[in-house]
Write a structure and sequence with these properties.
Length: 225
């Protein structure tokens, strides 16, 4: 089925930031790949997870890097309460002490300052990036210092609602693929990229399905390899 989405097709394809759009993609995915139907049964209802777009959304993803869900929520609550912190020009007016006092590390502060400067200077337009084909969108975002592939992919998936993103480096997705696809071993990131390529242009639906499957199996069995 693999089909590379052009910019026009990205614009014409339903986003996954609303239940109807995500359900359409899951239906298409399982229709083409009935092998995924058992995973869908285990996963149950697959709902979108929606975060803000633009600078605020990218800041939230960066906020959550390498910390627990609970810690990220606490830091985000403090950070988002800072006047101006959710807009690039406003961010540049907030002191480093205030942003780091909310819980951002020095590197996270520097990353978001670089993003704010790039947006304010017109060097990047996040709204324009969000409608690019997956690989082009990721490549454009990782040009920003401090933004790696995982951060770019999670932003595009959960903030921009991009329909064709699969964060192959995510450990939960690799474990879900090992179990759900009946593989002999947990796939490497490179192998997972190759497997997921066949699910284009519905890779975002596959990722969310796999996360839901992983959560359901972990609850049922206590752990996954």
């Amino acid at each position: 089925m693999a089909q590379r989405l052009t910019k026009d097709l990205v614009l014409a394809t339903p986003r996954i930031d609303h239940p109807e759009g995500l359900a359409w993609h899951v239906d298409q995915l399982v229709g083409f790949w009935p092998q995924l139907a058992p995973m869908r049964e285990v996963a149950g209802v697959v709902e979108p997870r929606v975060n803000p777009k633009g600078f605020a959304g990218l800041a939230k993803v960066v906020c959550g890097q390498q910390v627990s869900v609970q810690s990220a929520a606490a830091i985000w609550a403090r950070y988002s309460a800072l006047p101006g912190a959710l807009e690039p020009d406003g961010y540049l007016g907030v002191s480093e002490d205030d942003i780091r006092g909310a819980g951002f590390s020095r590197s996270k502060y520097a990353t978001m300052r670089g993003v704010a400067e790039a947006i304010s200077a017109g060097e990047i337009d996040l709204a324009a990036v969000e409608v690019l084909p997956a690989e082009e969108a990721v490549a454009r975002l990782v040009q920003l210092k401090g933004i790696g592939p995982w951060t770019a992919e999670v932003y595009l998936l959960f903030c921009a609602g991009h329909p064709d993103i699969f964060p192959a480096g995510d450990l939960a997705l690799l474990k879900a693929a090992h179990s759900g696809l009946g593989l002999d071993a947990r796939p490497t990131i490179k192998e997972m990229i190759g497997i997921a390529q066949d699910w284009s242009p519905h890779r975002s639906a596959a990722a969310i399905l796999f996360w839901r499957y992983f959560a359901a199996m972990k609850k049922r069995e206590g752990s996954l390899l």
